[in-house]
Amino acid sequence: MAAALSSPEVAAEGQEPLLSAGEAEEEGRDAVETQEHYKSRWRSIWIMYLTMFLSSVGFSIVIMSVWPYLQKIDPTADGSFLGWIIASYSIGQMVASPLFGLWSNYRPRREPLVVSTAISVAANCLYAYVHVPHSHNKYYMLTARALVGFGAGNVAVVRSYIAGATSLTERTSAMANTSACQAVGFILGPVFQTCFTLIGEEGVTWKLVHLQLNMYTAPVLFGALLGVINIILFFAIFREHRVDDLGRQCKSINCEEEESVQDQEAEGNIDHVAVVAINVLFFVILFVFAVFETIATPLTMDMYSWTRKEAVFYNGIILSVVGVESVIVFMVVKALSKRTGERAILHGGLLIVLVGFFILLPWGKKLPNIQWQVCIT
Asked: Fewest Cβ atoms nearer than 10 Å: which of 96, 131, 160, 204?
C-alpha cells in the first residue's frame, strides 16, 4: 500500500519527511512512495553520510603526525618532501573523482563505492608498514597517502547519489547534512590522533607480522577498520535508489530524466562568471586550510622546540578547536547571510583569514628556540 511520506507515522520515527504538511497540500500529494522504499532510501543516504565522514577522517586523522613520522622513518626527507606528501592526497582525489563519477554513470554505484573504500583500507595498511623497508621509506609514505586520496575520490559518487536519491524539497537539507558530515570528519580526525598519542612513539610491536602499533600507525589502522565496516554496510544496508524532483521512484538507476522547456531556459540563464568565481574562492579556502595543516607541525617544532609527541598532541588539540569553531561559524553565517547577503559574508571571511596569517608572521627581535636535535621524551 502506498502511503504519503508526510504522514505522521513516518515523521514520528525521526526521519526526514519528503514533504511537509503544507508543501504536500500544495503539491496535491503527488509525491508518494511506499513506506518501505522510503526507509530503505534514507538508510542508504545515511550510509553515504558515513562514507563522506570517513573520507574526511582519512585525510585529517594523520595530518598532524605526518612530519614527525616522516622524520622518524626516513631522516633524508625534508620539508619540501612533506609538501608533496600532503599534496599527494589531493592529487589522488582529483584524479579519481572523475573516474569514479564516470564509472557510476554506467554501473551501479555500489561498485565504485566498494572499490574506492577498499583502496583506502589497503592504503592505510600500507601507511602502517612504511617503516619496514630498509630504504626509500618516504616514497612508500608518498604512495600510501596518494592511494588514500585516490580512494577518497568516491565523494563525487556520494554527492551524485544523494542528489539523485532525494526529492527537490529534501535535496538542500541532504546536501547540507553531507557537508556537515564532512566537517565533522575534519574535526574528529585530529581528536582521534590526539587520543592515540597516549600510546607513545614506541607503542607495542607485533613481531610476527612486523607491525608497530604506536601513535603514528594506530590512527591509520583505526581508519582502515572503519573502512572495513563501511564496506560491510554497503553490502548489508545500501540499496540503489533514484527519485525525481517530486519524490517518485525511477525504474532505472541511471535513468536520464527528460528536461522540460523551463529547465532548459533556467540552465541557459546560469551566470557562468559567478560560478567560476565561486569555484576559485572555494579553491582559495581549501588552499589556506591545506597550507595551515601542512606547516603547523614543523612550524611549532622549530619555533617552540616541541618534541614529536608534543607537536602531534598540541596541534591535534588546536585543529580540533579550529574545527569546532568552523561549525559554529557555519551556523552563524547561515543565519547572518539572510540579513547581510552572501557577498558581505565572503568579504568578511577572507579579511579574517588575511588577518590570521598576518598574526602568524614571526614578530619581535627574539629568535625562535629552534630544536637542533631530537628530544627524547
From this structure: 204
Low-confidence ranges of the chain (pLDDT < 50): 1-31, 252-267, 371-377
Give the model's pLDDT for residue 376.
45
The answer to whether residues 144 and 151 touch, using CB atoms and an 8 Å cutoff, is: no
| Measured distance CA(316)–CA(309) in Å, rounded | 11
Residue type, 86: I
What are the strands, taking DSSP E only, across the chain?
3-4, 32-33, 204-206, 211-213
337-344, Cβ contacts within 8 angstroms, sequence gap of 24 or more: none
Q: Which three cell numbers stand for residue 71?
A: 622524520
The half-sphere exposure of 355 on its side-chain side, counting CA atoms within 13 A, is: 6
The amino acid present at 23, given as its one-letter code, is E
**C-alpha neighbours within 13 Å on the C-beta side of residue 230:** 32
Output the CA torsion 258→260→265→271 (10° steps).
Answer: -50
Q: Given this model, what pLDDT does residue 121 score?
A: 92
What pairing do the DSSP bridges indicate for beta strands 204-206 and 211-213? antiparallel
Reading the block at residue 368, the C-alpha cell is 625562535
Strands 211-213 and 3-4: unpaired
Strand 211-213 versus strand 32-33 pairing type: unpaired
Q: Which candidate, 251, 57, 243, places its Cα nearest to that of 168?
A: 243
pLDDT confidence of residue 109: 85
Three-state secondary structure call for residue 21: helix
What pLDDT does residue 267 have?
Answer: 47
Place of cell 595551515: 292
The pTM of the full predicted model, rounded to 2 decimals, is 0.70
> How many residues make up the chain in this entry?
377
Which residues have CB under 8 Å from 370's CB, separation 6+? Answer: 302, 303, 305
